[in-house]
Write a structure and sequence with these properties.
The protein has 286 residues and is of the alpha+beta class. The protein is built from 5 helices and 10 strands.
């Protein structure tokens, strides 16, 4: 049963990657010939949202746990995995991401919140450290488990981000290729919902869907291009809430509002019906 006793449960893995993994990731979030720093090993830079990859990695890990990533939630007795939905994500970059490395990935349950009949929200903090023990980046993944609420815990806090009502400063239009989830899953998130049509139908979808973290990667790349082009190393943090599902082939508009010096708010919405794919987003840079 899930309750406050789950706070502090942890797991540790090793994660290795090379410049080829960086380029594959950059390609999977839409980089092309016009962004040479993302697709060519000479002068290569990582789209900073590469920092999410060790969270769900099934490739590059020395101690894989079956066909899905090792998470501390696996230590909660009786927790139903099929009731899990990724609600929000925050990535903090402590130092520019090297183009190759061997990292120690420490995952710990930081908070558990009760949403009653809607389920429980679980915050998992994931810290990547280099060989010297220096933290390179920190993820906080917020999960909803639809079957784990009602244990009498605190309600989750509201987001501090409020998207303005006025017109955005920038609007960047783009779209997912038809093979977007097939390409993105080669970076390590091999959950069958993104490749297997029968699994997708059993999950309530007509066909495989785009990964939420793939959408975050597209947003990260496009935000950099609009706000500080060619300088991904300036990004210091990125946070977002996931909203409606994106499908291969969907077109979208990334709307960006300036918040202050070194920060902006954003929202990504489908162009066909205006429904948000990503919402309550904030990006910060130095």
């Amino acid at each position: 049963m899930l309750d406050q006793s789950a706070v502090g449960l942890s797991t540790t893995q090793k994660f290795e990657y090379t410049w080829r993994d960086i380029i594959l990731y950059n390609l999977s979030v839409g980089a092309g010939q016009g962004e040479l720093e993302y697709v060519y090993e000479k002068g290569l830079k990582a789209v900073p949202s590469f920092g999410v990859i060790p969270c769900l990695a099934t490739f590059g890990t020395k101690d894989p746990h079956g066909d899905q990533p090792l998470m501390p939630t696996s230590k909660v007795e009786g927790l139903r995995k099929e009731g899990t939905l990724h609600m929000d994500h925050r990535l903090v970059i402590h130092s520019p991401i090297p183009t190759e490395g061997e990292l120690t990935i420490e995952k710990v349950i930081r908070n558990v919140y009760d949403r009653g009949e809607k389920g429980a929200k679980i915050d998992v903090e994931i810290v990547a450290k280099d060989a010297s023990g220096r933290a390179l980046f920190t993820n906080t993944m917020g999960y909803l488990n639809r079957f784990a609420g009602g244990f009498g815990g605190e309600k989750p806090p509201a987001s501090s981000v409020s998207i303005p009502q006025g017109a955005p400063k920038f609007t960047v239009e783009d779209g997912y290729p038809q093979n977007a989830p097939l390409l993105y899953r080669l970076t390590g998130d091999t959950f069958p919902l993104h490749a297997d049509p029968e699994f997708a139908k059993r999950s309530g979808f007509d066909r495989p869907i785009v990964h939420g973290l793939c959408s975050l990667g597209y947003a990260c790349r496009l935000l950099i291009g609009a706000l500080f082009p060619g300088q991904p190393e300036r990004l210091t943090s990125l946070e977002v809430q996931f909203r409606s599902v994106a499908m291969p082939g969907d077109r979208f508009a990334l709307q960006i509002w300036e918040e202050g010096e070194g920060s902006a708010l954003f929202r990504m919405a489908r162009t066909d019906d205006g429904r948000a794919i990503l919402d309550k987003g904030r990006v910060c840079w130095a």
